[in-house]
Amino acid sequence: MAISLQQIIVALNMVSKGFNERLVMVNRPAIGIMFKKTLDVVLQVLVSFPSVRPLRSKVISFLHRMIEILGLSVLPCIPIALRLLLLDNEVFQLYFNDKPLFS
């Protein structure tokens, strides 16, 4: 099951590569709404499978991509995502240790 979910999230990530913030927020807002709803569903994967690291990694990647294309509209999802990701402090440290907090 987790492998299928990983494949679905990877596919969603690949589909999202064809979009940018202007397209989904200005020109085609219905697509932006669809991506926002998809993000809500993908975040629920963290609730169902909190300790499957490869799956968590895919969710983090998708969240990052959604921040890129949905911009500020993703802000309400960030506290939820961080709360779910902080359940496994080790994953949080692995992801952020090599990334500067401010650039």
Give me a quick take on this structure.
The protein has helices spanning 2-16, 21-27, 29-48, 53-70, 78-85, 89-96. The protein is mainly alpha-helical and 103 residues long.
Main beta sheet: none
- Helix/strand-derived class? mainly alpha
Q: How much is the radius of gyration in Å?
A: 14 Å
Average pLDDT over all residues: 84
Number of helices: 6
Number of strands: 0
Tertiary shape: globular
What fraction strand?
Answer: under 5%
List the domain count as a whole number.
1
pLDDT < 50 runs, ≥5 residues? none
Please report the distance between the alpha carbons of the first and last residues: 38 Å
Structure, explained:
The protein is mostly helical and 103 residues long. It has one domain (2-89). It is built from 6 helices and no strands. The radius of gyration is 14 Å and the shape is globular.
